[in-house]
TrEMBL record:
Lineage start: Bacteria, Pseudomonadati, Pseudomonadota, Gammaproteobacteria, Oceanospirillales
Pfam families: Aldolase_II
Protein name (record): Ribulose-phosphate 3-epimerase
Coiled coil: none
InterPro entries hit by this protein: Aldolase-II_Adducin_sf, Aldolase_II/adducin_N, Aldolase_II/adducin_N_sf
């Protein structure tokens, strides 16, 4: 993080067997879990956030299954391979429902280093609708051209669904799992969290707007495309996502205290 260091980052010691680079990634990922809880986007002990580890080994970090998101720490995150096998000892196991989804994306998309899966009320409601996400509100417009849709096949436990999920995702960064929820992925944890926040806001506004009487003001496709392009330029070419992420961590710590 290149902003103010959250107070809890200075209160823990890096284990000797973990490199500084991996430890920094673990801290950010653990903060991401706590932020998802802070914003109320958790599904008790279910769902998952993963982050690709640097290097050629195709390994990633994921939460121990059975822990609340607030119980996730940099030290207890699991290191697993693309099949979900632990590559370091841990008393915890991973959620098998996460492997098919996360390993598929991490194994196929070198441009995606973090994946978040949620199914909040608003997001799941949109996933139920044939039309999917609208691009006529401020946040929905920023998602124009970035969303793929995947038909529901049941709980994502089986490797044979991976190819179909990847085909549905294509070159996009948001996968709507029909009748279920979403998966979002970006080049790092900060950008992924900002994308998740944008998707959540788009869903909330769409659901609220749909509950009101009267017609919506619809945007032209070129305006939605312009919004999406400008947002991508901002995220790609500046430290915007890092500033947003670290500000949210500071906000969380100001209200809750240190994370661990």
């Amino acid at each position: 993080m290149n902003s103010a260091v959250p107070v809890s980052d200075t209160a823990i010691t890096r284990p000797e067997h973990i490199s500084e680079e991996e430890w920094a990634l673990r801290i950010k990922l653990a903060h991401c879990y706590h932020l998802v809880d802070f914003f109320g986007w958790t599904e008790t002990i279910f769902n998952h956030i993963s982050a690709r580890l640097p290097g050629p080994a195709n390994q990633y970090l994921v939460n121990p299954f059975g822990l609340n998101y607030t119980e996730v720490t940099p030290a207890n995150l699991l290191k697993v391979d693309l099949e979900g096998n632990k590559v370091e000892p841990s008393p915890y196991d991973a959620n098998p429902a996460g492997f098919a989804l996360h390993s598929a994306i991490h194994g196929a998309r070198a441009d995606i280093h973090c994946v978040v899966h949620t199914h909040t009320n608003a997001v799941s409601a949109i996933a139920m609708k044939k039309a999917g996400f609208s691009h006529h509100n401020f946040y929905g417009a920023q998602l124009y051209g970035r969303i793929g849709y995947h038909a529901f096949e049941g709980i994502t436990l089986f490797a044979e669904e991976k190819g179909r999920m990847l085909e549905s995702l294509g070159d996009k960064h948001i996968l709507v799992l029909r009748n279920h929820g979403i998966a979002v992925g970006e080049a790092d944890i900060e950008r992924t969290f900002f994308l998740l926040w944008t998707v959540q806001r788009a869903a909330e506004i769409q659901v609220t707007s749909g509950a009101l009487g009267g017609d919506d003001v619809e945007l032209k496709e070129e305006i939605s495309q312009k919004c999406a392009d400008l947002t991508q330029m901002l995220i790609r070419d500046s430290g915007f996502a890092v500033k947003f992420f670290t500000a949210m961590v500071r906000k969380m710590h100001a209200e809750r205290g240190p994370s661990w």
